[in-house]
Design the sequence.
């Protein structure tokens, strides 16, 4: 099982955000949608061993978590608009402190980075980190924390400061592209490719 | 310079396709938009040394090429809807047999795979191909031909049969994700990373 947690610093927590304006009124929900697609889609199917959690920190109720669990997702298409419609569906149900099901493979609850960070052994990406290609299968993290298009805030940096850090290459890429690289690395290790 | 050529087997060649239905009436224009984003976007900028050509084969006038040239693109955002609006803009101008400029870094012409394939030394992706990680910088192809969500047709296969073949890993991934992996490989070679 591989897990991703992505912070959407401006991502709307109002289910009424318009599907026609994911970058603006959605608060970069386009990027969040692509992150989910990168985590879950193979060419002809869903990665059933992968979970993608999104921490939405936009208005009006920052601190909402949406979970996409590949083991049970149904009918998801990879286009931004379709994925964002799942997020809207999850935002539309009331959320408490524990996960509530909004559909097959789709869950939501309230929470903070401080809550989430203790639940798994997260690693983060950092240019100065260990090159992920040098990591053996048994040392490969199974949970990765990423930020959206913004850097971690000062508060977030204090939470993630001591987490293991990995680098993906010489170019700094979008979060959705970073996830593609991480999963390729894990796929290769598990299948005995170099 | 790295070039990608992606075949959009059903991608609309009518500039009036709706931005609200890229997968359906756009003929999987969502996927085409993501392929362009993968080819051109870094975290904070555009890959100025990369070109992404799309061969649109959907109705009503199959055989239209749209070129996104990173060296001159302006104001492109990575969301599907924005990129698709550039494709609409390029489709809206009349096209002949040579490239015509539709905007900064945006060009269009008519053409077939047979025309395009002779213009660069293309490589293709194939599970049975050489693992791209084993390829030295000097042997790395600088032009890649990919298909959308469909396999190459029989006619296309006859055109690409003798091209060099490379594999990216044990999992077959979407074309946009494949491009992320190829560019990471090239970035690493050029920067002396393993």
Sequence:
């Amino acid at each position: 099982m591989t897990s991703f947690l992505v912070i959407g610093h401006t991502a709307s927590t109002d289910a009424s955000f318009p599907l026609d304006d994911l970058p603006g009124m959605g608060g970069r929900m386009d990027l969040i949608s692509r992150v989910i697609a990168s985590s879950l889609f193979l060419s002809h199917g869903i990665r059933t061993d992968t979970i993608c959690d999104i921490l939405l920190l936009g208005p009006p109720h920052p601190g909402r978590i949406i979970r996409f669990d590949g083991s049970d997702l149904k009918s998801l298409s990879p286009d931004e608009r379709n994925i964002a419609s799942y997020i809207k569906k999850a935002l539309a149900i009331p959320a408490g402190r524990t996960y509530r099901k909004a559909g097959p493979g789709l869950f939501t609850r309230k929470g903070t980075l401080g809550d989430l960070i203790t639940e798994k052994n997260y690693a983060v990406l950092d240019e100065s980190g260990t090159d992920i290609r040098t990591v053996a299968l048994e040392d490969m993290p199974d949970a990765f924390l990423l930020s959206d298009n913004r850097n971690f805030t000062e508060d977030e940096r204090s939470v993630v400061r001591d987490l293991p850090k990995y680098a993906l290459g010489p170019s700094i890429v979008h979060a959705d592209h970073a996830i593609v690289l991480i999963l390729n690395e894990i796929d290769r290790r598990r299948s005995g490719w170099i």
Notes: Strands of chain B lie at 2-8, 41-42, 45-46, 50-56, 64-69, 100-103, 106-110, 123-131, 143-147, 165-167. Chain B has a mean pLDDT of 97.
